[in-house]
UniProtKB/TrEMBL annotation:
<dbReference type="InterPro" id="IPR016143">
    <property type="entry name" value="Citrate_synth-like_sm_a-sub"/>
</dbReference>
<dbReference type="InterPro" id="IPR019810">
    <property type="entry name" value="Citrate_synthase_AS"/>
</dbReference>
<keyword id="KW-0012">Acyltransferase</keyword>
<dbReference type="GO" id="GO:0046912">
    <property type="term" value="F:acyltransferase activity, acyl groups converted into alkyl on transfer"/>
</dbReference>
<comment type="similarity">
    <text>Belongs to the citrate synthase family.</text>
</comment>
<keyword id="KW-0808">Transferase</keyword>
<dbReference type="InterPro" id="IPR002020">
    <property type="entry name" value="Citrate_synthase"/>
</dbReference>
<dbReference type="InterPro" id="IPR016142">
    <property type="entry name" value="Citrate_synth-like_lrg_a-sub"/>
</dbReference>
<protein>
    <recommendedName>
        <fullName>Citrate synthase</fullName>
    </recommendedName>
</protein>
<dbReference type="Pfam" id="PF00285">
    <property type="entry name" value="Citrate_synt"/>
</dbReference>
<dbReference type="GO" id="GO:0006099">
    <property type="term" value="P:tricarboxylic acid cycle"/>
</dbReference>
<dbReference type="InterPro" id="IPR036969">
    <property type="entry name" value="Citrate_synthase_sf"/>
</dbReference>
<comment type="pathway">
    <text>Carbohydrate metabolism.</text>
</comment>
<keyword id="KW-0816">Tricarboxylic acid cycle</keyword>
<dbReference type="GO" id="GO:0032787">
    <property type="term" value="P:monocarboxylic acid metabolic process"/>
</dbReference>
């Protein structure tokens, strides 16, 4: 915990043998340190009846109530529906800022001056080219490769391009003390990620890859991305400013969301000091999962399945009887309207003004209206989340469903890098102030519920004591391999 947290309050824990332990409650938040908990020791029995003394551990699968770092990046009040980056409300940032400015704010902690912003933008935009070996690598994927898989693999492959920036190959503390090296990776990753994403998209739709725009044209971050996605043979192609702005707002609202699964994965990976390309690829892998970055796609599929406004009641009955789930509703943290959903609902209309109204939005708006008046959803505090409207915007803009997680991952890279940057600073101050745990590699504990000790069996014993049947090894075989392995029988 930070040194400013004065140790003033205690939680008294009494063990079954009436021993009392005083656990410090740190001010500001009501957290106790796990290392204090470890001082409490309890007696227990092993399976074979031996008495053992063990330190107490908190057991928290899914990290429902465990903080693993202190952070100044994002503030969320889920009950009130508040999201702020570095203290600035998300609504104000969406209205008055742009993605690159927000990325700077997240990483460096302050809004940039005009000069800092120009330099920041210039540095990132001058790193948008990717090496020809990476383009060749991307071309070697199957024609129908998922863009997210291509992105993850190519981002990881990028680490091979910069051996001098790899702590495994140079020095362990490369990034802790060399802020220029740190910045260089940030510029490269933010600059090249949209290029890799655009190549993955072009690969998927069978069009040649585009190079980034020339910097003198002054395209914004999202304009350059749209240019690489959509330019055909035009030498002066410029995407619609309204669509570029809407994408910029989508990028802003997705940029950070404190320790969600992929950001936690980023902190976990970088705690080993692995290079940031590998870490970003790993975090993107976590985001790729359907329980994290896949919900916007699920919303579109759900709305398509409902099909028309007159089928909404029937669908909601299915949700209430728990045979269906209302995708894009509910959130682990927000027990109120997700502020990002409000912003996107407004931007959906702006996008429709450019590309035409997507009929699914009428179903979405009516579905939301009925759900937020229904006692089932009200009593469970279920409101629309960010994914309720983002998928409709992507669909209206013609993005294929498999691009949705990538459109989420791209802006979230800013948040991942901000957490990496912050953890490196923790590292530096931890060296001075000996903050418990901050410098450590992240490694959770487990509760071992298996056999503690066994003797390796003899051959006869291993066969007779076998509790796992051959069914455990069953798998699927494609028709192709069935054909290949078809038995040689005599033809009658
Ligand atoms: N539709 C219907 N019922 C729901 C829903 C939903 N979307 N979400 C929660 N519930 C019900 C749930 O059945 C439970 O009811 P009961 O008390 O009768 O058992 C109650 O509400 C509490 O739900 P929970 O599962 O304990 O809530 P959770 O915090 O574990 O789950 C969630 C959060 C996001 C996984 C869940 O709300 C959900 O599955 N939503 C749909 C998927 C979705 O939209 N995901 C995107 C989340 S936002 C992405 C981001 O921020 O990065």
């Amino acid at each position: 915990m930070s040194q400013s947290n004065k140790e003033s309050r205690y939680l008294i824990v009494q063990t079954p043998s009436k021993e009392e332990h005083k656990l410090t409650v740190h001010d500001g938040d009501v957290a106790i340190l796990a290392k204090d908990l470890a001082q409490v020791r309890l007696k227990g029995l092993t399976k074979d009846g031996k008495e053992v003394e063990k330190q107490v551990t908190s057991f928290d699968p899914g990290f429902m109530n465990t903080a693993c770092c202190e952070s100044t990046i994002t503030y969320i009040d889920g009950d009130k529906g508040i999201l702020r980056y570095r203290g600035y409300p998300i609504e104000q940032l969406a209205e008055r800022s742009n993605f690159l400015e927000v990325a700077y704010l997240l990483i460096y902690g302050e809004l940039p001056t005009a000069t800092q912003l120009n330099t920041w933008k210039e540095r990132i935009m001058s790193h948008t080219y990717i090496h020809v070996t990476l383009m060749d690598y991307m071309k070697s994927f199957r024609y129908d490769a998922h863009p997210m898989s291509m992105f993850i693999a190519t981002m990881a492959a990028m680490s091979t391009e910069y051996p001098e920036s790899n702590p495994t190959l140079t020095r362990r503390d490369l990034f802790e003390f060399d802020y220029r090296a740190r910045n260089q990776q940030i510029f490269r990753i933010l600059g090249k990620a949209p290029t890799i994403a655009a190549c993955a998209y072009r690969h998927r739709i069978g069009r040649p890859y585009n190079y980034p725009t020339e910097s003198f044209r002054g395209y914004s971050y999202t304009e350059n991305f749209l240019y690489m996605l959509d330019r055909l043979s035009e030498s002066e192609y410029r995407p619609s400013p309204a669509i570029a702005k809407a994408l910029d707002v989508l990028f802003i609202v997705h940029a950070d969301h404190e320790l969600n699964c992929s950001t936690a994965a980023m902190r976990h990976l970088t705690s080993t000091r692995v290079d940031p390309y590998t870490a970003v690829a790993g975090a993107a892998g976590a985001l790729y999962g359907p329980l994290h970055g896949g919900a916007s796609e699920a919303v579109v599929r759900m709305l398509e399945e409902i099909g028309s406004v007159d089928k909404i009641d029937e669908f909601l009955e299915g949700v209430k009887s728990k045979t269906r789930r209302l995708m894009g509703f509910g959130h682990r943290i927000y027990k109120n309207y997700d502020p990002r959903a409000k912003i996107l609902k407004e931007y959906a209309e702006k996008v429709f003004a450019e590309v035409g109204r997507d009929p699914l939005v009428d179903i979405a708006v009516e579905l939301e209206r009925r759900a937020i008046q229904d006692d089932y959803f009200v009593s469970r505090k279920l409101y629309p989340n960010v994914d309720f409207y983002s998928g409709i915007i992507y669909r209206a803009c013609g993005f294929p469903l498999d691009m949705y997680p990538l459109l989420f991952a791209l802006p979230r890279i800013a948040g991942w890098l901000a957490h990496w940057y912050e953890s490196l600073r923790e590292e530096k101050s931890a060296a001075k102030a000996s903050i418990p745990g901050a410098t450590h590699v992240m490694r959770a504990r487990q509760i071992c519920i298996g056999d503690i000790e066994k003797v390796f069996p003899t051959e006869e014993e291993s066969i007779s004591k076998q509790s796992i049947t051959m069914d455990a090894l069953k798998t699927y075989h494609s028709n192709l391999s069935k054909r290949r392995r078809a038995p040689h029988k005599d033809i009658a």
